[in-house]
Amino acid sequence: MNYHRYYPVDVVNGEGTRCVLFVAGCEHQCPGCYNKSTWGVNSGSPFTQSLEDQIIKDLQDTEIKRQGLSLSGGDPLHPKNVPAILKLVKRVKSECDNKDIWLWTGYKLDELSADQQEVVSYIDVLIDGKFVQELADPRLLWRGSSNQIIYRFK
């Protein structure tokens, strides 16, 4: 898996102070997407064990408390991203007490493959659906267009 940006401290992409990872790869390629640079699955930089370890360390930091991890992109549920994302979310849940995981995807919840559903079983909040420019509304919280749905699982 490749990624574009990692923010160890963020207050925009989900509730509370968070760590945010923007991954590479999106097959939806929605017109009007604000993050077109992340579409290419081979764009960005390789996601390394070192970066995964840093995310865990940042989530465990007691000086700057984070509520959790946000995964965006690109699309974290792109089939090429699923193995690395699954490994990461499992590790967050096992090593980072009380941290929530938010994930944005262009896929609809009812369209997910078994592998994608396994990732979702570890997350707390899913924002699903493609960005639709005609339904864009800057007043929406946590989503870009009104067709996107916020699911709170836990």
From TrEMBL:
Belongs to the organic radical-activating enzymes family. Keywords: 4Fe-4S, Iron, Iron-sulfur, Metal-binding, Oxidoreductase, S-adenosyl-L-methionine. This is Anaerobic ribonucleoside-triphosphate reductase-activating protein. The keyword Membrane does not apply. Transmembrane segments: none annotated. SUPFAM superfamilies: Radical SAM enzymes. The keyword Protein transport does not apply. Its EC number is 1.97.1.-. One of its GO terms (molecular function) is 4 iron, 4 sulfur cluster binding. It catalyses: glycyl-[protein] + reduced [flavodoxin] + S-adenosyl-L-methionine = glycin-2-yl radical-[protein] + semiquinone [flavodoxin] + 5'-deoxyadenosine + L-methionine + H(+). It is an enzyme of class 1 (oxidoreductase). Activation of anaerobic ribonucleoside-triphosphate reductase under anaerobic conditions by generation of an organic free radical, using S-adenosylmethionine and reduced flavodoxin as cosubstrates to produce 5'-deoxy-adenosine. It comes from the Bacteria.
